[in-house]
Amino acid sequence: MNKAELVEALAARLGDRKTATAALDAVISEVQNAVTKGDRVAITGFGVFEKRARNARTARNPRTGEPVNGEEDVVPAFKPG
Question: Is the separation of the CB atoms in 54 and 28 below 8 Å?
């Protein structure tokens, strides 16, 4: 299911496509803002959105084959619940 299909399903329950779109956009925006700040967003029966640290790793330059060191990074993550 993509976002457009989710909006249609919500519109069927709420009765209005405009309201469904606004509600879904608001939820997505709030989750993004919370995770960006470093907060953990847990929705019971659905899952948890959070930031996770990704370890530094070595990659290769595809043109030269030379090893390139990547830095540690923080990425958004979702764990289904």
Answer: no
